[in-house]
Amino acid sequence: MKKNIFIAMSSLLVLGAALAGCGGNSDNPSQGSQAEEAKKTGSQVLRLNLHSEPPTADPGLSEDTTSSAIIRATFDGLTRIGADGQPHESVAEKIDVSADGLTYTFHLRDSKWSNGDPVTAHDFEFAWKRALDPKTGAAYAYQLYYIKNGEAYNKNKAKAEDVGVKALDEKTLEVKLERPTPFFKELTAFPTYFPVNKKLVESNPNWAMQASTHVGNGPFKMAEWEHKNKLVLVKNENYWDKDVVKMDKIEFSMVDDENTELSMFERDELDWAGAPISALPTDAIPMLKESGKMHNKTIAGVYWYKFNTEQPPFNNAKIRKAFAYAIDRQSLIDNVLQAGQLPAMGAVPPTMALNKDGYFKDNDVETAKKLLAEGMKELGITKLPTVTLSYNTTEGHQKIAQAIQDQWKKALGVDVRLENKEWKVYIEDLHQGKFQIGRQGWLGDFNDPINFLELFKEKMGGNNDTRWEHPKFKELLDQASMENDTEKRKQILAEAESIFMDEMPVIPIYYYTHSWVQKENLKGVVISDLGNVDWKWASFE
């Protein structure tokens, strides 16, 4: 989402966990009294904090974890990831798969949009083709490339009618794939695969930016959206599975300071603080761990710094590797992060690792100095100019940047200027190439290494802000997509990751853990192994 976690989605995007954002307001003194009133009436009201304003509530345009969290609450896919981490039938009550694995037929149950319109197979067909339409500019369009002619349509090499998704009738959706895709049912639980109300979207292009016009088909519906201040969801009485939804309301503050958020939790103004939609203040983590209040979960995500490989000096791979090798990740984890993260020595997280030993040594200053000297010689320069490291505004990202700034200065003698920006501005500048080194994170959209590698397959790919591209890397990813033998496919992907790490268009820094505190009587919040949160089953006991 993040995930620019911020995901992109992926995620994540990422928030504190991945693509973290910003935006904020002052504390709301009325929230404590609201909580007392809720206790008296027995209503189920969940009070949370979004660390940033969601850039969108449109599943076809979402590319970060903040937006994804709201979208997962207000929409439902053909499948939904359950507490067991597996995809289960949701809007689809029955799924038929052909013997060759190339055709999926989804039989939809009776379900409605939050405005009462019926959810149809035509809504799914429209949503998927809309995300693939090159005019839409969806960053996650590539997640639909598994569908027959999906990539061709997105690249103006085929027509919409050539895409392998078709509503056979109101309740039957037929999907033809380019090749067998074992994780396709998991993909249909991803926001880009969610439906949108065809009639609404065609009549109002801005439908997703206001509560009054927002329509979803999920457990909750949007009741209020006071931009950069608060967002309120209420139970969707038109949801097909409404009987399992216990929460009457979810109220989101938008405070961009981790210390303020934790204080609000301690004053009983919030029921949850920290990941996955925000972050805990790093200084408070030791105390929270010692008290036993902090919850931790290892997730499939990587915190990394991206290079703009089109701008010198980072158009040189040796200089990129020098900066990567000079970071002391373990020191960063022990002294700044302090939440049990793991040093990242590869692009693919340990939950699906292709090389468990990693591709380089942590804090290898000697090799870093050697590579820097060689790279500068290749560029014909004797001194590096000041380098700018950009990040989106949060205390956590700032502390990490300050620590790495100091490490680079001591190890390489490089002067680094820090630049922080509000999330929406920051992510747009990344996409426009207005950066030298930029912070980002990535949470897996599904449990497969390809999810972390295919981001960088195409130079102009929706989430490839590095603008790096490599012909052999692309060739290997294409080979992997056609390989049905699991072990052979893993070997091909490992070779691709090896090329990626030798070129180093990003610096892997650490593998994510989600850390948070919550009210003891809050039950049923599901955080998946990919770091996504689902409040469908949440309740206070």
TrEMBL record:
PROSITE patterns: PROKAR_LIPOPROTEIN (PS51257)
Protein's UniProt name: ABC transporter substrate-binding protein
The keyword DNA damage is annotated on this UniProt entry: no
SUPFAM superfamilies from the UniProt entry: Periplasmic binding protein-like II
Keyword Repeat: no
UniProt family annotation: Belongs to the bacterial solute-binding protein 5 family.
Localization of this protein: Cell envelope
Organism: Brevibacillus aydinogluensis
Cited InterPro entries: Peptide/Ni-bd, SBP_5, SBP_5_dom
Residues in Solute-binding protein family domain copies: 87-460
Cleaved signal peptide residues: 1-20
GO cellular component annotations of the record: ATP-binding cassette (ABC) transporter complex; outer membrane-bounded periplasmic space
GO molecular function, one term: peptide transmembrane transporter activity
Source organism, top-level taxon: Bacteria
Keywords recorded for this protein, A-Z: Peptide transport, Protein transport, Signal, Transport
